[in-house]
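Supplementary notes for students who missed Thursday's class. We covered one full example, reproduced here. Read the sequence, then the structure, then the short commentary at the end.
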Amino acid sequence: MSHYLIELLIWVAIAYIIGCILGWLARGLFSGGAAETAAVVASAAPAVASAAGTLTKPQGIKSARGGKADELQRLSGVGPKNETILNQLGFFHFDQIAAWTAAEIDWIDDHLKFGGRIKNEEWVRQASLLAQGKEEQFASEFGTGGMKGKDGQSHSGSHTRK
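Structure (token representation):
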């Protein structure tokens, strides 16, 4: 019985070696060889580095102006935890968020591991409207944002999920 197991293991080892050789040959024939593969990897490295270089950490402030921060939870997508993190990063006011550049949005999004939520939920647009005091336009587009209205319910706007 053990004779058959040993023979089976030998055949599996032979099949593995033949598969490796055929794979190596096929890669050499169809991909242009190792030199071309190394060139592709080397040319991709700067692209990855430049993409990572587009992240720019926005400058926050040490504390809220006048000792009173804006209620960042009004932004749809900002809850208590995210508001705390934004405050720790030095963002206390709507006008600060409204001034974020695309590279700064990418940095914050990457830092918070949001996967594009900041752009999708239009934090900069929301913050801009609130910083400018355009409450009616904000309410029409974003409803009550992240907060409950006077009736104790949250309401959606034209730009939010219903």
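Commentary. Confidence is low (pLDDT under 50) at residues 33-50. Residues 73 and 80 are 7 Å apart (CA to CA). If anything here is unclear, bring it to office hours.
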